[in-house]
Amino acid sequence: MPDGSNGSALAEFEQIYRGNVGLVTAYFARRCADPQTVADLTSETIVRAAGAFGGFDPGRGTACGWLFGIAGHVYAQHCAQATNGRDAAARLAGLAGLPVDEIEELTHKIDAQRAGRALLERCAELPALERAAVELVDLGGLTPKEAAAALGVPRGVLRMRLSRARARLRKVYHCDE
Amino acid sequence: MSNFEDHLWREVVREHGDGLAQVSRPAARNNRRARPKLVVGAGLALAGAGAVLALVLGATTTSPAFAVTRNHDGTVTVSVNGYGGIAGANAKLHQLGIRAEVMTQMPSGCAVMRGSPAPSPGIADAHWTISPGKIPAGRTLVLAPAAEANGGNSGSGGQIWSCPTGPVGGAPSPGAS
């Protein structure tokens, strides 16, 4: 079983990074219109994950759910500190001043999340847990189990809230799931 | 990965790689029996499901991080239990000279294999059975669980994909077996 051996921890983290960084970036691209902010919040999430990797136990939840849990905290902190006029993200030195091609990539990612942002706006009236459930499952592509782990609620509660949220959205907007 | 994602990974490794290399990963605490969720032939011939089932279930009472098992009918069963098993499985496939790789993010230029089974729901307890002799020349099979593949470039579900042979993913971990 894995191991405890040091070199493999970096390799394992790289697998997690490669498998999920696109989802994390999209999560922030649905919330922020500025490519540099999306980059900073994504990097902040990954850096925090790297720092906490020793405590991550795949037996207790998926890496995807774990990362989304961190991303949620990073964004909440960003909003709170932005209110006070401070920059939440501790930027990696090498990411200050992104090259033009990367800004364009992130701009495209932000544009691609337009529909996701619209759905989030539609969910604005929903309770926070229902809104988060819709986003993680219907936009983020997580399984209900992963979303439940990310949000720290039992799977049954997540499924119930998700079902309720979808029903409310259908009722209000007369649209299909 | 995009330029930004590659750039971010380089910065993470540069600034936090030493710390990650020192991380001591907890031993997996998963005591569930391995369950075969996917049974297919890579060349789209279905494998001897009964034989595979017996081999996988008979392996151990605890789930290893990965297993690459040659079956008597010439197929090979790849089992991965969590992200920690990916590098080892890929190293073993590479050692056996099998052009297949477990990946959590789909590279471009890939096509889903006709007859590929329903997606595995996640990276925990994911299994694929492939026929190495039937992998088309110049192609590499990519074995991807659904939840992770959804976050990749293709935006499609999991299953087994055929990709142009080349650097489709990270290099296998040399120490794994």
What does this protein look like?
The complex is a heterodimer of chains A (177) and B (177). Chain A has 177 residues and is mainly alpha-helical. Chain A folds into two domains: 1-112, no CATH class; 114-177, Winged helix-like DNA-binding domain superfamily/Winged helix DNA-binding domain (Arc Repressor Mutant, subunit A, Orthogonal Bundle). Chain A is 70% helix and 0% strand. Chain A contains eight helices and no strands. Chain A has helices at 6-29, 35-52, 63-83, 100-112, 114-122, 128-139, 144-151, 155-173. The model of chain A is unreliable at 1-6 (pLDDT under 50). With 177 residues, chain B is of the alpha+beta class. Chain B has one domain (31-164). Chain B has a four-stranded mixed sheet. Chain B is globular, with a radius of gyration of 16 Å. Classes of the chains: A mainly alpha (177), B alpha+beta (177). Chains A and B meet through helix 1, helix 2 and helix 4 of A and helix 1 and helix 3 of B.
Largest interface: A-B, 55 and 56 residues
The gross shape of chain A turns out to be globular
Query: What number of structural domains do the residues of chain B give?
Result: 1
Percent of sequence in beta strands of chain A: under 5%
